[in-house]
Amino acid sequence: MQTIQADNYPINFNEKGYEALNLHLKENKYSNLFIIVDSNTNDLCLPTFLPFLETELTIEIIEFEAGEENKNIETCVQIWNVLTELGADRKSLVINVGGGVVTDLGGFVASTFKRGIDFINVPTTLLSMVDASVGGKNGVDLGNLKNQIGVFNLPAMVIVDTNYLETLSQNEMRSGLAEMLKHGLIFDKAYWEQFLDLKTIDFADFDDLIHRSVVIKNEIVTLDPTEKNIRKSLNFGHTLGHAIESYFLENENKTTLLHGEAIAVGMILESYISLDKKLISEAEYNQIKTTIKSIFDDIAFEENDIEPILELLIHDKKNEYGSIQFALIEGIGKIKINQLVENELILEAFKDYKS
């Protein structure tokens, strides 16, 4: 697959990625190398990654416990302390090998340690390949509130090796598929239509679908690196999706949702809102709802769940001047940003989702 040139860094694929990495290590005089992993990728991915490295640098592995609940400032403090104890300096390099939790947190750790050291991301989940690989967003959660603390800072490069997908469960693959569906809905109708019937997808060509998804996100981010305008389109499904994800994460009576599972619900809800605002047709809405529900299991919402979810919207990062901002689709493949939505319409969307 062809290398994608993002904003001042390359996204390399499969074997080309390791060639580019080793060339980068030769050309830059790093003092030492730190690889950040979680407990899953340490076991499942690091044994594949390490043999590709061609370097005489001292390599230290820093592992933290897997899970969204560990994507917090306390974990960062622990890793900053380890880096300090192991003699990391401003010429050290960090390589983050893992899913979105690892690349988000590892990128934030590197971006803030000694005011910033170089880092490289090696996303190992489908979600992180098509989402976290592009855009330079690094950060951690604040309690149950998603990605409240962070910075925009670009990696030196990204390596997307689709062989790591073999380590994923079906649920993890579906979670990543949600972001790919989103890219079609907001930007490319023809791309969306390739997912209308998963039985017709030739998974031998799945690398091409991943590559197209990364291209779409990169095009949007390149136009608006710091999310002042069109990059807000990437928030489709995420305004309600993040609130749902946070609520299920903090509620001990609920089963924690994967990111893509929550975003799938968010896309259906926000498509209903788009329908109510006459931005899409009923036929388009039915196609979106039917397609997403054919891939993802329904999530059960009780009556007393909805109000706490709405309260979480107040903390959404996309809010401006106290107003909740939605990105809604204006026909499949197009987007309309900065849309205000009243609570009554959100409640109607939940009722329709459950029907």
From TrEMBL:
CDD domains: DHQS. Its cofactor is NAD(+); Co(2+); Zn(2+). Residues 62-174 form the 3-dehydroquinate synthase N-terminal domain. Residues 176-319 form the 3-dehydroquinate synthase C-terminal domain. GO terms for cellular component: cytoplasm. Gene3D superfamilies: 3.40.50.1970, Dehydroquinate synthase-like - alpha domain (1.20.1090.10). It is an enzyme of class 4 (lyase). GO terms for biological process: aromatic amino acid family biosynthetic process; chorismate biosynthetic process. The keyword Disulfide bond does not apply. GO terms for molecular function: 3-dehydroquinate synthase activity; metal ion binding; nucleotide binding. It comes from the Bacteria. Its EC number is 4.2.3.4. The keyword Protein transport does not apply. Keywords: Cobalt, Lyase, Metal-binding, NAD, Nucleotide-binding, Zinc. It holds the Pfam family DHQ_synthase. SUPFAM superfamilies: Dehydroquinate synthase-like. Catalyzes the conversion of 3-deoxy-D-arabino-heptulosonate 7-phosphate (DAHP) to dehydroquinate (DHQ). This is 3-dehydroquinate synthase. It comes from Flavobacterium hiemivividum. The lineage of its organism: Bacteria, Pseudomonadati, Bacteroidota, Flavobacteriia, Flavobacteriales.
